[in-house]
């Protein structure tokens, strides 16, 4: 029967397992993506993207801002969460309801119930920007998962193990993909390879955005 197979296009894809407790939900944010990108621009109008400096004195290649009650910041003094944007000295923009609901639905889909993030870090990658292997370990509550949303140009995501030396697997993350990790893999090393020169997306041009939702305490 003509068209029958099209029915399956709307079914959510099965989560792909990256490691114990870690799941890739392909296309999970597709329906919300355009709205999420609009919100990112709105947030950046109040708290602009900036290249933060690591405690070691290096300027990060990904530009960052935050929304929610707490924002992840770094400077020569260290990594930490801050209630105020050090650039504007005001609170971070509120976390939009669309952000919160998406993060909660994604956590739920990966079997993490009752996720209540206090922070959403927004990364912007342009050509050559990357995030070297690291652990997300500035949070006091390690029982909650990390929810990470990809928007715009695709990138190569690395997901390793509990030790920096563990060889990471690589996964191509595309517009609308969501990765959720917690439990046994909550402190696993991860990062992204440099955004390629040919990176392009109809909604973001040569940029890729990432939303990282975290419960801090
Ligand atoms: C990060 O883990 O800090 C960012 C990952 C990403 O951009 O996908
Ligand atoms: Fe991270």
UniProtKB/TrEMBL annotation:
Keyword Oxidoreductase attached: yes
Cofactor binding: number and manner: Binds 1 Fe(2+) ion per subunit.
MF terms (GO), sorted A to Z: broad specificity oxidative DNA demethylase activity; ferrous iron binding; oxidative RNA demethylase activity
Binding residues annotated for 2-oxoglutarate, in chain numbering: 123-125, 208-214
Pfam families in alphabetical order: 2OG-FeII_Oxy_2
Named cofactor requirement(s): Fe(2+)
Residues annotated for substrate binding in this entry: 72, 79-81, 138, 164
Sections of the chain in a coiled coil: none
Domain Fe2OG dioxygenase: 116-217
GO process annotations (BP): oxidative RNA demethylation
Keywords from the named record: Dioxygenase, Iron, Metal-binding, Oxidoreductase
UniProt GO cellular component terms: cytoplasm
UniProt-annotated binding residues for Fe cation: 134, 136, 190
NCBIfam families: PRK15401.1 (NF011930)
Name of the featured protein: DNA oxidative demethylase AlkB
Originating organism: Halopseudomonas xinjiangensis
Gene, per the UniProt record: alkB
């Amino acid at each position: 029967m003509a068209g029958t197979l099209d029915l399956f296009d709307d079914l959510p894809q099965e989560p792909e397992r990256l490691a114990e407790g870690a799941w890739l939900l392909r296309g999970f944010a597709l329906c919300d993506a355009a709205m999420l990108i609009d919100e990112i621009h709105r947030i950046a109008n109040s708290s602009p993207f900036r290249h933060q400096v690591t405690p070691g004195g290096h300027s990060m290649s990904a530009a960052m801002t935050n929304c929610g009650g707490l924002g992840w910041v770094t400077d020569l003094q260290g990594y930490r969460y801050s209630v105020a944007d050090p650039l504007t000295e005001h609170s971070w923009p509120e976390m939009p309801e669309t952000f919160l609901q998406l993060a909660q639905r994604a956590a739920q889909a990966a079997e993490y119930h009752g996720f209540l993030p206090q922070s959403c870090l927004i990364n912007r990658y342009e050509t050559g920007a990357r995030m070297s292997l690291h652990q997300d370990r500035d949070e006091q509550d390690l029982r909650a998962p990390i929810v990470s949303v990809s928007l715009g140009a695709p990138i190569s995501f690395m997901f390793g193990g509990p030790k920096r030396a563990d060889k990471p697997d690589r996964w191509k993350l595309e517009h609308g993909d969501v990765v959720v990790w917690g439990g046994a893999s909550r402190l696993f090393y991860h990062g992204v390879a440099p955004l390629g020169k040919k990176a392009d997306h109809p909604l973001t041009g040569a940029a890729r955005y990432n939303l990282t939702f975290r419960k801090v305490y």
